[in-house]
Amino acid sequence: MKILIVGAGLSGCSMARLLKDSGHDITIIEQKAHIGGLCVTRVNGDGILYEPFGARTFHATNQKVIRFVTRFDSFNGFVHKKGIFIDGKIYPYPISMRTVQQLEQKEMILQELRERPKRINKINFEKASVSVYGNTLYNLFIKPYSLKMWGRDPKDLEAALAIKRMELRYDDRQSLFGDEWQGLPVHGYSFLLKSMIRQIPLRLNTAQFNPADYDVVVFSGPIDQFFKYRYGKLEYRSLRFYYRRNERWENNNYGTINLPQHSLYIRKCNFKVMHKQITKQSLIQYQKPVEEDDNHMPMYPVRSRKNSQAFDKYLHLICKTHICPIGRLGLFSYLNMDQVVELSFSILSIINKYPVLTPQQRYDKIKNAIKKYNNLENKK
Ligand SMILES: Cc1cc2nc3c(=O)[nH]c(=O)nc-3n(C[C@H](O)[C@H](O)[C@H](O)COP(=O)(O)OP(=O)(O)OC[C@H]3O[C@@H](n4cnc5c(N)ncnc54)[C@H](O)[C@@H]3O)c2cc1C
Q: Ligand 1 mean position to 338 CA, how many Å?
């Protein structure tokens, strides 16, 4: 089939590679002057690799995903450890029982943990968090971070948003992610994606296309924008970035440190730790959460009831066409990079049949493919 891929982020590039390898005729267009979307790596004047849209670690358990991405670069094996800065002290994050033992409020927290409900309360973000952490831990670690991160009352956010990341550790594991396989591409994300789409025609600085010219269009841009916001704008949070060179870094165990109590920033990261570079200099990135606008890329889908309902209407609409939505923006889903690639494998089989599926079959198959990443049923 003749297929157009719109957007050269990780979703567009992995989909392009898989479709090309299956024998389709592929072209990619990207509205920006460079590929990568959020997955971009640059080098600063000191030779330090850095991600201008936020540092990120690839982590996966799915062997198919690992085999796929390691075709395009080797990975540096960095195991992501995150800290959280509270009342002048850094603790490992996610919160562990060892941390609880060090807190002044220990007795109260332990009592609240004993009294937690057996099942997570799925009414909203706040209720879900309190049912995992109890009130005291929630107010200390989660609430201030979430208010700043999302710029919204946690009561107005869906439980799914909290549940994806919520964890209270009973062991001493220090890595942020549970996956054994972790790391950053040795030559950076831009290199990884460039190798992924080698020999596939790419047009940069272009958002214009005529769907009628293709058998299928695979669309990784914002689904609401495609329909000119007919059912309203889907909301995203974004980040603004600030840099400091050679600033003191409290603890080299941590690649990133959450800053829930800071008046502006949500977290900071040290690129040379994450890229495992040995340099005298360092580059620290501070991240400040802001609303998405023309100057701030859509990054984190805001999972509220209103947004989820509007997304569902857009999905029904797009399934009436021969345009298949993918990725964080097309599917309005919070996807990690391993999930983006895993999903590309599932969507590959949907696209192969796309022209002959009915709109309802397309909708059902796509809903089914993303259920795994948004669904609360696996969590008790
Ligand atoms: C701050 C931050 C930290 C993260 N950290 C991690 C992490 O540690 N580990 C992890 O696994 N994941 C992490 N992620 C998630 C990861 O970055 C995403 O899963 C991934 O980048 C999503 O890729 P995408 O292609 O779906 O979207 P995007 O990267 O947004 O790419 C979409 C592309 O489409 C282009 N486009 C949009 N509309 C059009 C159009 N109409 N025409 C042409 N082009 C268009 C855009 O310009 C863009 O290049 C993080 C995300 C953020 C925001």
A: 12
Asked if residue 173 has pLDDT above 50, the reply is yes
Q: Please give the pLDDT value at position 164.
A: 66
Same domain for 149 and 11: no
Segments forming the whole domain that contains residue 369: 2-72+181-235+298-374
* Residues in contact with ligand 1 (CB, 6 Å cut-off): 6-12, 29-32, 37-39, 54, 56-58, 207, 220-221, 239, 299-300, 327-329, 335-338, 340
Please state the domain count of the chain.
Answer: 2
Rounded mean pLDDT, 136-146: 89
Cα 371 to middle of ligand 1, angstroms = 19
Q: What residue owns the CA closest to ligand 1's atom 8? A: 56
Q: What is the DSSP letter of 77?
A: -
Q: What is the Å distance from ligand 1's center to 264 Cα?
A: 24
Q: What digits encode the pLDDT tens for the residues 277-306? A: 999 999 999 999 999 988 899 999 998 889
Percent of the chain scored above 70 by pLDDT?
Answer: 98
Q: Exposure of 159 by Cβ count < 10 A (0-12 exposed, 13-18 middle, 19+ buried)?
A: buried
Query: Of 4, 38, 179, 217, which is best to mutate to test ligand 1, by the most ligand atoms within 8 angstroms of its C-beta?
Result: 38
pTM score above 0.85 = yes
Burial grade of 111 (CB within 10 A; 0-12, 13-18, 19 or more)? exposed
CATH number at residue 194: 3.40.50.720
